[in-house]
């Protein structure tokens, strides 16, 4: 319904409802110091030490204490994002060998991603038209590293089968469920898993507080709408301007940070 067909009384009621809502939001608005703390927590948890240090100076907040532990996570994340999974696994083991020894699913995800990167390299070097013999390194890696784990869990077996399918179907005939394995988004997801595992191994909170707040906000909105609470039809989260100004919300000061 266009605004020209809305009755004056309906329009007036809508405006009053919006104004009342805006007033309630303003009354509940968090303090600037609380917002700064959430931002600092995100920068430290996600691994942006340089940005965290700059932000601390600008806001007079205490900066991160253990820079090296943050930089260790950054180096692991950078390796995964660039496809150097073998190097990332070595670095995780140097940080704490028990991480992958105890988190078998995470270890499998890393090995699966390493296999995907081997296949990706083969496809790239052959311009998407590899010979069957080109896949021997991938088959050898899958046989030695992943196949022994597959019989222990159907999830592992299915994941291995999907990954091996990358060597069977041509790129132009590959189903979406297989193509998504070659999406670099998988690297980001695994990197996030690894970052959480490292934080947990150090007895730190495994997730930035803002992620919990966003989920809580989404849950609250869903519950409120289910209860027929009088509220605006659209409630933007309020990050659009920041996202446009900061490359999707990722600090651009050189700090680098995946079934």
Model description:
- The chain has 259 residues and is mainly alpha-helical.
- It has helices spanning 8-27, 32-46, 49-59, 67-81, 85-95, 98-102, 104-125, 136-146, 154-164, 176-179, 185-201, 209-226, 240-245.
- The chain has a domain at 66-211.
- It is built from 13 helices and no strands.
- The protein is globular and about 70 Å long.
- Residues 240-254 have low confidence and may be disordered.
- This is CTLH domain-containing protein.
- InterPro entries: CRA_dom, CTLH/CRA, CTLH_C, LisH, Ubq-SigPath_Reg.
- Residues 240-259 are annotated as: Disordered.
- Involved in the proteasome-dependent degradation of fructose-1,6-bisphosphatase.
What attributes characterize this protein structure?
Ubq-SigPath_Reg; globular; 13 helices; CTLH_C; about 0% strand; CTLH domain-containing protein; mainly alpha; about 260 residues
Kindly summarize this structure in a few lines.
With 259 residues, the protein is mainly α. It has helices spanning 8-27, 32-46, 49-59, 67-81, 85-95, 98-102, 104-125, 136-146, 154-164, 176-179, 185-201, 209-226, 240-245.
Mean pLDDT: 78
Secondary-structure class: mainly alpha
Report the biggest beta sheet as strand number plus sense, adding barrel if it closes.
none
Regions with pLDDT < 50 over 5+ consecutive residues? Answer: 240-254
By DSSP, the count of extended strands is 0
Q: Encode the helix/strand succession as letters.
A: HHHHHHHHHHHHH
Protein name: CTLH domain-containing protein
Region (Disordered): 240-259
Function: Involved in the proteasome-dependent degradation of fructose-1,6-bisphosphatase.
Domain CTLH: 69-126
